[in-house]
Amino acid sequence: MRQALLFDHDGGVDDLLSLMLVLSMDHIDLKGVSITPADCIGDYAEESTRKLLHLFSQPGVPVARGSYHGINAFPPEWRAGPMVVNAMPLMINVEVSKPKEVLESVDLLAEELRKAKEPISVLMTGPCSNLVRTLQQYPELGSKVKEVIWMGGAIDTSGNVVTYNHNSTAEWNVFWDPIGSKVLFELGVPITLFPLDVTNAVPVNYSFLKDLAKIAEFDAANLAGQFWATTLNTIPAYEYTYYMWDILATSYLGIPAAFDFEEIALTVSTKAPNAGQTMRLKDGEHKVKVAMKVDKDRFYQYLLQQFSINF
Ligand code: AGV
Ligand code: CA
Fold this sequence. Notes:
globular, Inosine-uridine Nucleoside N-ribohydrolase, Chain A, 14 helices, binds ligand AGV, 37% helix, alpha/beta, binds calcium ion, ten-stranded mixed β-sheet, 311 residues
């Protein structure tokens, strides 16, 4: 039987690549996509999401938009990412219709969790606010969550937030909504976390992009290669490397055995100078399954295999 999945992303280039990866997985039954307006401008991310659903022949998957905006906004240059991908030759002429009233994320997540006969997995590659708000509003739906798979946090390594009044201990997805993130770890739903500790192992590198280009006769490989190429100029004030952050977390759905995990109780700081820092708790009630190591070759091979498909 196919595995039901809800996917909440925040429209970054690697979020959209993660959507492509999810759509390439035969064993996944995608029940809905929710967009968090964090590392993206929501309208462009919704458009690219609908275009990808169309290209991968799953146009019926419902798409929702989160109306909550976190306290620490992402840099505007990053938020324009999906605008660029919408203009790519394989994307620009894809006509998608948009319903007059777009669903609110909390409503979509609640409805799909409620409808599910068996508990269902939730993949999140942006901040966790939409899911947290859903479970705060409808606590009875917590038992419907089989596993939350989340790219976020930095545990034994430094964060990637560099801003005034901050000591660089936080990862951006957590920093956008530190209060919501703290709540997530207190809810008691099963969480599998992919922090920077493991994603640091998988930068977007030239040798992988060369291998991908060799199979560019496949539509998915061609499009993915174009998406990734846009990430190589990632030189904001302080960060020179774009990683496969979200794609690594997404690959867990296909190659769970490629990871080593540690069980850790976690909490989140909500105040300066380390707002959004994920910290170990000595006697925490709820442990999180944290990915700490990955078999990199297996991961890159898996991507090449999954993207060997035509539209
Ligand atoms: O912190 C990683 C998260 C992931 O969900 N995002 C990007 C991924 O989608 C924020 C982020 C950190 N550095 C970035 C980010 C950069 N240089 N460009 C865009 N987003
Ligand atoms: Ca993201």
